[in-house]
Write a structure and sequence with these properties.
Largest sheet: 4 strands, parallel
Strand order of the largest sheet: 2-1-3-4
CATH architecture: 3-Layer(aba) Sandwich
Number of strands: 4
Shape: globular
Helix content: 25-40%
Radius of gyration: 14 Å
Structural class: alpha/beta
Order of helices and strands: EHEHHEHEH
CATH superfamily: Response regulator
Distance between the termini: 21 Å
Strand content: 5-15%
Number of domains: 1
Length: about 160
C-alpha cells in the first residue's frame, strides 16, 4: 500500500480537502487496498481543530464530502511513515524539506504539478483570507490535481523534485 500525506500551512483549508478528495477518487476506482492518505500542517495554529467551516461547506456542497479530519502538525517522522508528501505551495515545500532526515523514504512533491490545465503554477492558493469564490476555486483545483495525481501514481510516473 502506498501512503500519501498532503501538507499545507494550518491543515484546515487545502490539505484536509486534498486528503478527502484523494480518498474519494481512490474509493471510486476501488483502490482502497493500494492507497491511503492523511494530511498535516507545517504550523501549529489550529491543532486538533476541524477543517475551516468554509472548506467543509464547499466539500459538502460540491463533492458530498463530510470532512472530519482534525488538524495536526507535520513532523520529521512523516518522512518515514509516508511514501509521498504533497505540499500545497513552495513555502510549505521548503518548510517540509527543512525537517527531512537522512533516512527519509518519502518523496516530496508539489500538488500543483498535477494540475491538468496549468502546469507552470507552483501553488494551490490559500483561501483562508478569501471569500466563498476562493474556496470554490481551490476545491476545483484540488479535485483536478488529486485525480491527476492518483492517475500518475497508478502509472508509477511521479515527477520527483526532492
Amino acid at each position: 500500500m502506498q501512503s500519501v500525506l498532503f501538507v499545507c500551512l494550518g491543515n484546515i483549508c487545502r490539505s484536509p480537502l486534498a486528503e478527502a478528495l484523494f480518498v474519494k477518487h481512490v474509493n471510486e476506482q476501488n483502490l482502497t487496498k493500494k492507497f491511503s492518505a492523511d494530511s498535516a500542517g507545517t504550523a501549529a495554529y489550529h491543532l486538533g481543530e476541524l477543517a475551516d467551516k468554509r472548506t467543509r461547506a464547499m466539500a459538502l456542497k460540491l463533492s458530498n464530502l463530510n470532512l472530519t479530519h482534525k488538524a495536526r502538525q507535520f513532523e520529521s517522522n512523516d518522512f518515514i511513515a509516508f511514501d509521498f508528501i504533497v505540499a500545497m505551495d513552495k513555502t510549505n515545500f521548503q518548510n517540509i524539506m527543512k525537517l527531512k532526515p537522512e533516512n527519509a523514504k518519502a518523496k516530496v512533491l508539489l500538488m500543483r504539478h498535477y494540475d491538468s490545465m496549468i502546469q507552470n503554477e507552483d501553488a494551490i492558493p490559500d483561501p483562508y483570507y478569501g471569500n466563498e469564490n476562493d474556496f470554490e476555486k481551490v476545491h476545483h483545483l484540488l479535485n483536478d490535481c488529486t485525480k491527476s495525481f492518483l492517475k500518475e501514481l497508478m502509472r508509477n510516473n511521479i515527477r520527483i523534485i526532492s
